[in-house]
Write a structure and sequence with these properties.
The structure holds three protein chains of three kinds.
Chain A: E1 7-13, E2 20-27, H1 31-42, E3 50-55, H2 67-71
Antiparallel strand pairs in A: 1-2, 1-3
Chain B: H1 3-12, H2 17-26, H3 39-64, H4 73-98, H5 104-112, H6 130-147, H7 156-184, H8 188-208, H9 219-224, H10 232-250, E1 260-262, E2 267-269, H11 275-285, H12 289-327
Antiparallel strand pairs in B: 1-2
Helix pairs in contact in B: 3-4, 3-12, 4-7, 6-7, 6-8, 6-10
Chain C: H1 3-25, H2 33-61, H3 67-72, H4 83-86, H5 92-113, H6 119-147, H7 151-165, H8 176-183, H9 194-207, H10 230-244
Helix pairs in contact in C: 1-2, 1-8, 2-6, 5-6, 5-7, 5-9, 6-7
């Protein structure tokens, strides 16, 4: 019985100082192979200095149907943003 | 009641999921894998994205045919890198397609059984080195025209894959044109080789942009979902208009006696495309359909024991780790 | 012309050229897309190294020689690659085994060559070390996967190692040109790499649950231009354009 190589999600840091960003996915039998494959697939043009691989099944994602309850309550909390506060134009460095 | 009020009332009667979905796309919002989507949207996207992925990996074969015979080391590495890119693009696209709930193995199965289509141009043979030039120049040229608008398509994973593909592909067409240019600046034999390649690839390249609008079945729906921004005929005209002057620069003759500049329309008029040939190739009876499929199926089947071994090894390693953890 | 140096460079470069050519044949036919991309990367690394060597060799030779005239326009017996690298891609186990058996040697060689008195060779070696380290890691991992994978893959990998073992000893043969280069501090005495090589290879084979072949019968000839029957076909393919359309630019 043949088993297919599982799917992995690939995160790449483009250069030091930047965060790892999701680059895409690929198939590999194990983590070692996922790393090697990611290196050849996603950093052929010097796109990265560090790679994370995570087997896709280990990622828990929020359900878009719950977007309302999850994300909308933040929308009216405008006092969290600097523009909420009125200051005279001649106040500098703030 | 004013029109505005009517609209508000309409909204109050609560839009169907599908109406909300269509509205989001109309507002240029992206659809992401876990979002609700109509079944038809999902199916259409699986079909188009996988067809695109299949085209990339079948497209490796006609060019792969010349890797061992490339005439210089510089050409050899450039060609290898290009064919490798196509594997990469196939991989990006298969991954995008997998977010729609279908596995790569299922997609391969569809390709190998002949159920899924791929771009029919790859069923033409590459019989001289100049074909590497003509494919890069014409086939990649036509592909780019098709692909650039897809960077803005509505399905997020597809759009992201296409951005990557388009960015990487920009060297492919230039590479092809440079090969043609070198041939055209070369000896008489080389010029003939270049002309011969143009003669063989011109019409298939035009066909590559798809059937004419009056017979194309998917266009309207695809436009709505931003799987398509322009019709096949518009894309074809654009391709011809931009390619003919390039042929002039090369000093080659486009093999179409009816081709001429139309001052009034601001476009080139061109001759009749042999659609019978197109459908013959699409239906599996082109010069290389069988070879291409045999090559793909063969590679996959020869690889089975390799893939199985890698899985077996991974499991053994995993078990070892777990046993070690238990022992501690 | 510095004939010894020229010949020595060919000895180094032809291995890269022919190994790269063999891997290039597989592009588009690998067991998975991911592996296909990886093997092509190794092939590209090897061709890149080949070009650096040949460009240097062309400078030494003069008389209008180019990297391409050296790569494509020699007769079979003028190619100095070892027999190992010209062996065909019989199956994926065979390809990985061939490449691994070369990669281990290649890396050991480069680690010494980086201290060459010849600054060009030293520079090429320094750049290539990183590539070769990755190659050893990649092919070594595959030896383990296939050796310790399924029964079928184990058999195939064992068969590949058994068949290819006979070509390993040639790697450590020191040619007349190499002797002179070693004496001048330019070349590497490959005979000194032998012990480390078999140690490394044996350790990995063991880890991969494979049996280390005991055969003491070895084949040689590549370094002096006497190749196996496979070489002619490889060259017919590789040289086709340059032979059929001589003296043209591509």
């Amino acid at each position: 019985m043949n088993k297919n190589w599982p799917l992995w999600e690939i995160f790449v840091r483009s250069k030091n100082g930047l965060e790892h960003r999701h680059f895409g996915s690929l198939h590999a039998a194990d983590a070692e192979m996922a790393l090697e494959n990611a290196r050849d697939v996603y950093t052929r043009r010097s796109e990265g200095v560090s790679i994370w691989v995570v087997e896709s099944k280990h990622i828990t994602a929020s359900n878009p149907e719950h977007n309302g309850e999850l994300f909308e309550p933040a929308q009216d909390k405008i006092y969290r943003h600097p523009t909420f506060y009125d200051l005279p134009d001649d106040v500098k460095h703030m | 009641m004013s029109e505005a009020q009517q609209n508000t009332n309409g909204a109050e009667r609560s839009l169907s999921l599908e109406e909300i979905f269509e509205q989001r796309i109309a507002n240029d919002e992206k659809i992401e894998p876990k979002d609700w989507m109509p079944e038809k949207y999902r199916k259409t996207h699986i079909r188009q994205i996988s067809q695109h992925a299949h085209s990339e990996i079948v497209g490796m074969l006609p060019e792969g045919n010349w890797i061992t015979r490339a005439p210089s080391l510089r050409r050899k590495v450039a060609l290898l890198a290009k064919v490798q890119d196509e594997a990469g693009h196939g991989l990006y696209l298969y991954s995008a397609c997998e977010t729609l709930g279908i596995s790569r193995e299922e997609l391969y199965e569809q390709l190998h059984s002949g159920k899924a289509k791929y771009s029919s141009i790859f069923n033409y043979p590459t019989i001289t080195w100049a074909d590497m030039g003509a494919i890069g120049w014409l086939v990649d040229g036509a592909a780019i025209i098709n692909q650039v608008p897809l960077c803005n398509t509505s399905y997020g994973p597809y759009a992201r894959a296409m951005i990557r593909v388009c960015k990487e592909e920009s060297f492919h067409q230039r590479q092809g044109f440079e090969i043609m240019m070198t041939l055209c600046n070369g000896t008489e034999v080389q010029k003939q080789m270049a002309q011969d390649a143009l003669n063989r690839w011109w019409w298939p390249a035009l066909m590559m942009l798809g059937p004419t609008d009056d017979v194309s079945v998917h266009t309207e729906q695809s436009m709505k979902w931003k799987l398509k921004r322009k019709t096949n005929d518009e894309l074809r005209q654009q391709f011809i208009d931009q390619t003919v002057p390039q042929a002039d620069i090369l000093g080659l003759t486009v093999p179409d006696p009816d081709l001429k500049w139309n001052e009034e329309t601001g476009h080139y008029d061109f001759g009749e495309i042999d659609w019978d040939e197109f459908w013959q190739v699409v239906k599996g009876h082109g010069p290389c359909n069988k070879e291409r499929m045999n090559a793909r199926v063969g590679a996959w089947e020869r690889g089975t024991w390799v893939r199985d071994a890698a899985m077996a090894y991974a499991e053994k390693q995993q078990n070892k780790k777990e046993n070690q953890a238990k022992a501690v | 012309m510095k004939t010894n140096l020229y010949n020595y460079i060919l000895e180094l470069a032809d291995n890269c050229l022919i190994a790269g050519q063999r891997l290039g044949e597989l592009c588009g036919h690998g067991p998975s897309l991911e592996t296909d991309i990886a093997c092509t990367n190794i092939s590209l690394d090897l061709f890149g190294q080949t070009r650096s060597y040949f460009q240097y060799a062309a400078d030494i030779k003069g008389e209008g020689a180019t990297e391409d005239s050296i790569a494509f326009l020699r007769y079979e017996q003028e190619y100095k690659n070892v027999l190992l690298v010209e062996q065909p891609n019989r199956d994926f186990a065979f390809t990985m085994a061939r490449q691994y058996l070369y990669d281990v040697f290649h890396l050991l060689l480069l680690e010494k060559l980086q201290f060459s008195q010849d600054i060009t060779l030293s520079a090429i070696a320094k750049k290539s070390i990183k590539e070769a380290s990755y190659h050893v890691r990649f092919t070594g991992d595959w030896i383990k996967r296939l050796g310790d994978g399924t029964e079928e893959s184990h058999e195939k990998m064992q068969a590949a190692i058994n068949d290819l073992w006979t070509y390993t000893n040639e790697l450590f043969e020191v040619t007349e040109d190499a002797k002179i280069m070693v004496a001048e501090g330019i070349g590497v005495d490959v005979s000194t790499l032998k012990e480390a090589y078999y140690e490394k290879v044996s350790a990995l084979l063991e880890e991969a649950t494979l049996t280390i072949p005991e055969s003491k019968y070895f084949q040689k000839g590549g370094k002096s231009g006497i190749h196996t029957e496979h070489m002619g076909y490889l060259l017919a393919d590789m040289q086709y354009m340059q032979r059929a359309y001589p003296n043209m630019k591509w």
